[in-house]
Here is the input.
Amino acid sequence: MTDTTSSTVAADRARAAELSAAGRFLKATELDTRMLGMVGALLVIWIGIHVLSGGLFLTPRNLWNLSVQTSSVAIMATGMVLVIVMRNIDLSVGSVEGVVGMIMGVAQAEFLIRVIGFQLGNPWLWIIALAAGVVLGLAIGAFQGFIIAYMEVPAFIVTLGGLLVWRGMAWMITSGRTVAPLDATFQLMGGGPRGSIGATASWVVGVVACAAAAFALLNGRSQRKRFNFPLRPVWAEIFLGIVACAAILGAVWVANSYPWPVGIVRQYAEQKGIAIPEGGLFIAHGIAIPVLMAVAVGIVMTFITRRTRFGRYVFAIGGNPEAASLAGINTRWVT
Here is the structure.
């Protein structure tokens, strides 16, 4: 085993010597060139929009608002990864989100308050409403999955119909009217000044995330060494750690650079008895709660896909459904 590993390392070094400086750098750091291309294209688009907008795009305010607005899409995208990996598609995911959100809003603002008699601020309000949304989402997913897996209707057709049905149902529940008032907990989930964790807590989250990134690199290196896999150079590990921490702390800095609006600061200062200085009071938003929720969901979904039997089944079915079925995987149940 040692001789084989030594010869493999020697061969890798010989091939690396033939590469250019950029090629050797990419090989040592094991950076995905496709990912770098996408990041580069995104940066070019951002810079272009920033120039065309007169310097309004790449600002803390706009980037913070974009992070809040895209957090719900990011959460949906984590689930869509599993669907697409299994060679399916879900066109109804946005409509399902709409009808589930509408049910949660109606349950909290109308049913629990006006029918059951709960008061705003009751901790059971958001718990029951959230449970109702989760149950409805599971029921819709199970219903569409049953039609796809057991009735063998193509996912495109089923979810296209679901897109129309669930969108219409979301409108039918309230006839397009506004649902209010919402519990304070739901307002936190929507972001805004009250829906963020502040500057100090954001820096704490950033430091913890940097420590987690460093631990992941060290753990990955120890696992490679344990199984005699080729190791990245130490400088490459340090470089990746610095880049990861710089990206994390940079995101925290941007979130902390966006202050509360003047009116909300004045209202907050009056409630807390804080004197506003002559130059104004700066209170940073910090990381928005929806963004933290999206990150948490992404971490959980990563664990599910990489560390659980269900995740391995998903990739097996996506790679070869027939072979997965012959291997004993219940492909219909997983679907």
